[in-house]
UniProtKB/TrEMBL annotation:
This is AraC family transcriptional regulator. Residues 186-284 form the HTH araC/xylS-type domain. Keywords: DNA-binding, Transcription, Transcription regulation. The keyword Transcription regulation applies. Gene3D superfamilies: Homeodomain-like (1.10.10.60), Jelly Rolls (2.60.120.10). The keyword Cell membrane does not apply. CDD domains: cupin_MtlR-like_N (cd06976). InterPro entries: Homeodomain-like_sf (IPR009057), HTH_AraC (IPR018060), HTH_AraC-typ_CS (IPR018062), RmlC-like_jellyroll (IPR014710), RmlC_Cupin_sf (IPR011051), Tscrpt_reg_AraC-type_HTH (IPR020449). It comes from the Bacteria. It comes from Leeuwenhoekiella nanhaiensis.
Length: 289
């Protein structure tokens, strides 16, 4: 499946764009762009592909995507049939760069809350239990004057940060997105991303801090809500997903290239993380090509 870079920057002397999409179906292109994207689905159903995440979408879903995160909302087959002209795909999409209000704007202490949200959006976020005022805010943005529009977007980001939200992609999908907010954990992230294809032990990683392995394991699990080995598996599976999207190797070769010494273990860990086998995952993406 070919990945296309799209131009989403504003050409109307504005710092961000607001698009109200209404068509027979959404754009059937696996694409990315340097802008963040906030998307509210108003009408239609289908399957969303975001990084290594594959899931159904329905009206009312709200998603925030980080920069350069590949994605596509693929409508169900019924939306592509000529006889179903009454069906529509509608959405509101806001595109903005992280520096749309200035290079250092989100580094200010007052912007700490929305800045954390934008950092988390590197993996893509889906919001749960959206209050009714949020869709209304999104619908009204386009009708505001430029100054009020910018303030309203900032307020919206602050409100979204307080809502229940979950990452979409695995920890390993964005191999360059090291988390830089956890002090000495930076050494751990860098080590894992550089060496995940090799055999890694808890003792090896704990020595980087340095800490007692048992104490480090408890700290890591408390901070990430998952064990070190689970985190490492997500990195490896995220990398494997990227290879499976451009099928040029056999599944067994991809497994070994991702740090697994046996095909059976690779298949087992892949399904544990994604809910699908590597073959099933590859077939889903090949049908979109």
């Amino acid at each position: 499946m070919k990945l296309i870079k799209l131009d989403r920057q504003s050409h109307d002397d504005c710092s961000f764009t607001i698009n109200h999409t209404r068509d027979r179906h959404f754009l059937k292109i696996w694409h990315y762009h340097p802008e963040l994207e906030l998307v509210l689905i108003l009408e239609s159903t289908g399957t969303r592909f975001i990084g290594d995440s594959i899931a159904k979408f329905t009206p009312g879903e709200l998603v925030l995507l980080g920069p350069n995160l590949p994605h596509m909302w693929l409508n169900d087959p019924v939306y592509f049939k000529e006889e179903n002209e009454e069906l529509q795909a509608r959405a509101i999409a806001i595109h903005f760069k992280q520096d749309f209000l200035g290079a250092d704007f989100f580094t200010r202490p007052e912007m700490r809350i929305p800045a954390r949200l934008l950092q988390a959006a590197q993996r893509g976020l889906v919001f749960k239990s959206i209050p009714p005022e949020v869709p209304e805010q999104l619908k009204n943005l386009k009708h505001l004057e430029p100054f009020e529009r910018s303030l309203s977007l900032l307020q919206l980001l602050k409100e979204l940060a307080a809502l229940d939200h979950h990452p979409l992609t695995g920890a390993g999908y964005l191999s360059e997105a090291y988390n830089t907010g956890a002090g000495n954990f930076d050494k751990v992230y860098e080590y894992l991303y550089k060496n995940f294809r090799e055999s890694i032990s808890l003792e090896d990683v704990a020595a980087l801090i340095p800490m007692n392995p048992s104490a480090f394991s408890r700290l890591f699990s408390k901070f990430h809500k998952k064990s070190l080995m689970r985190y490492l598996n997500e990195i490896r599976i995220g990398y494997a997903c990227r290879l499976l999207m451009e099928p040029h190797e056999r599944v067994s070769e991809i497994g070994f290239a991702s740090g697994y010494n046996s095909l059976s273990n690779f298949n087992r860990q892949f399904k544990k993380v994604t809910g699908k086998t590597p073959k099933e995952y590859a077939e889903i993406h090949s049908k979109m090509s």
